[in-house]
């Protein structure tokens, strides 16, 4: 055990691990976490998060598949390897003081949409009632942009792209990574799941429209 490990609230960690495992089971059952893909996290306190261990089956998580990192992504109290994409989770907690959970999944809809809209750099949702499922959106008469960032194995590069979007003052509630999947977050696990479901639904609607109209993105 490293010293910092003693500062973690064990009850909070247990509760977050339970919520992460429950979310994984739910999302895995929907087919959104194929082949060990996806990763999940929850904020533990101002300086730490609970995150899934790399390579685990995210649809069958137990308490032991979740570990603690600090907001620089360093493991706390364990030699386990955190998600390969931990930097994207800790970035959310650093940039959004209110963020309490982050979900990353690889559904077919998310992945296909990411490829179709990569050239455009973003998908713009307009006129959909379900935009109101994203916190802060109160009407379908709004514009909701979901950026698509190029995929890379270099997490620092992705972190820079997300920082650049935010530093330009653009609202951000989630993003796609080309050929990869989606990231979204919220105040707690409930809000984060709602955001994920809303983006999945909105993406599916846009893909349906394209298909029905026989158009390119
Ligand atoms: C087999 S999926 C490739 C890695 C990935 O995109 C993912 O979401 C899971 O990575 P982790 O290290 O979090 O297991
Ligand atoms: Zn992934």
From TrEMBL:
It comes from the Bacteria. Zn(2+) binds at residues 104, 106. One of its GO terms (molecular function) is methylthioribulose 1-phosphate dehydratase activity. Residues 18-207 form the Class II aldolase/adducin N-terminal domain. SUPFAM superfamilies: AraD/HMP-PK domain-like. Keywords: Amino-acid biosynthesis, Lyase, Metal-binding, Methionine biosynthesis, Zinc. Binds 1 zinc ion per subunit. Pathway: Amino-acid biosynthesis; L-methionine biosynthesis via salvage pathway; L-methionine from S-methyl-5-thio-alpha-D-ribose 1-phosphate: step 2/6. SMART domains: Aldolase_II (SM01007). The keyword Lyase applies. NCBIfam families: PRK09220.1 (NF006672), salvage_mtnB (TIGR03328). Catalyzes the dehydration of methylthioribulose-1-phosphate (MTRu-1-P) into 2,3-diketo-5-methylthiopentyl-1-phosphate (DK-MTP-1-P). Belongs to the aldolase class II family. MtnB subfamily. PANTHER family: METHYLTHIORIBULOSE-1-PHOSPHATE DEHYDRATASE. This is Methylthioribulose-1-phosphate dehydratase.
């Amino acid at each position: 055990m490293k010293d910092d490990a003693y500062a973690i609230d064990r009850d909070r960690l247990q509760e977050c691990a339970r919520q992460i495992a429950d979310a994984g089971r739910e999302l895995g059952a929907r087919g959104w976490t194929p082949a060990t893909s996806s990763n999940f996290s929850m904020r533990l306190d101002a300086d730490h998060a609970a995150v899934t261990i790399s390579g685990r089956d995210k649809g069958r998580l137990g308490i032991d598949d979740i570990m603690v990192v600090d907001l620089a992504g360093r493991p706390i109290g364990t030699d386990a390897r955190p998600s390969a994409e931990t930097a994207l989770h800790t970035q959310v907690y650093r940039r959004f003081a209110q963020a309490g959970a982050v979900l990353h999944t690889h559904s077919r809809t998310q992945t296909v949409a990411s490829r179709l809209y990569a050239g455009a750099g973003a998908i713009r949702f307009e006129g959909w009632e379900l935009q109101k499922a994203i916190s802060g959106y109160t009407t379908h008469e709004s514009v909701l942009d979901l950026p698509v960032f190029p995929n890379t194995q270099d997490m620092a590069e992705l972190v820079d792209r997300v920082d650049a979007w935010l530093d330009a003052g653009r609202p951000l509630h989630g993003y796609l990574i080309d050929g990869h999947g989606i990231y979204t977050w919220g105040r707690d696990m409930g809000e984060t799941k709602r955001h994920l479901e809303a983006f999945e639904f909105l993406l599916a609607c846009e893909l349906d429209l394209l298909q029905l109209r026989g158009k390119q993105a």
